Amino acid sequence: MADLPFHATAFLLLFARVGAVVMLLPAFSDDGMPGQIRLMLAIGMTLGLYGLLEGKVAAASADEAGLAATVIAEMLVGIAMGMIVRILFNAAAMAGGLISVQVGLSSTLIADASMGGQVPLLAKFITVAATVSCMAMGVHHLWIGMIVHSYDLLPVGHLPPGGDFAQLAIQATTRATGLALGMAAPLIVYGILFNVALGISARVAPTIQIFFIAQPLNILLGLTLFAGTLGVALSGFSEAMAGFMRTGWAF
């Protein structure tokens, strides 16, 4: 019992970083998930990692005068790390939006709490499928490993290096954009070819409303191609996410 205040302080410092990361990680951070559940997940993960990381926060726990500043610094580190992962994961939603435009389903919207509004149906579908794919391939283990190894890169009590994290955010945004284009590439090529064919048909038969007639065919062919390429796209997305988690945190 004499060590209880020390352990409580160490747990608070650990929870500040771990909880901030968990609140922003894909699947765990959806606004559709009740806040109480997310809080319990953060507390449970902190408890699970406490025995492993207690030594990393022990020294900072003894500094009572700077405890408030240390907690704020830990929260900022966790928020920065979680946002980097979230930026990269948004590539799935970007790819879904591009695909929706190509197959003519961009006006079919559905509420998405994680994006803070309405998104195309296929964007929501790919986001959920990407989450399942990452979980199936064990990428969530790398998210946990990121938290553990962050204490070696960013010791407790040190503010996150703003310039390095800004550069990392730019790299993540660039990679997310390229990844989204790669996932949607087959449908983008299909959309170009289909619309060129429609344009030629409209010039050959100008009296026929070819764009309205061909729209059901566009949806059918587009969804067929989408179904055929989805597995490869999700595998590539999960591998890219795993590769970034392994190599993208060198400051």
Structure description:
It is elongated and about 85 Å long. A two-stranded antiparallel ribbon has the order 1-2. The chain is 77% helix and 3% strand. It has helices at 4-22, 35-61, 67-89, 91-103, 121-136, 139-153, 162-204, 210-247, and strands spanning 109-112, 117-120. It contains eight helices and two strands; from the N terminus they run ααααββαααα. It has 251 residues and is mostly helical. The protein has one domain (4-247). 33% of the residues are buried.
Query: Strand count, sense and closure of the main sheet?
Result: 2 strands, antiparallel
Rg to the nearest angstrom? Answer: 23 Å
Beta fraction: under 5%
Question: What low-confidence regions span 5 or more consecutive residues with pLDDT below 50?
Answer: none
Percent in helix: over 70%
Write the element-wise H/E pattern from the N-terminal end onward: HHHHEEHHHH
Keywords for this structure?
251 residues; mainly alpha
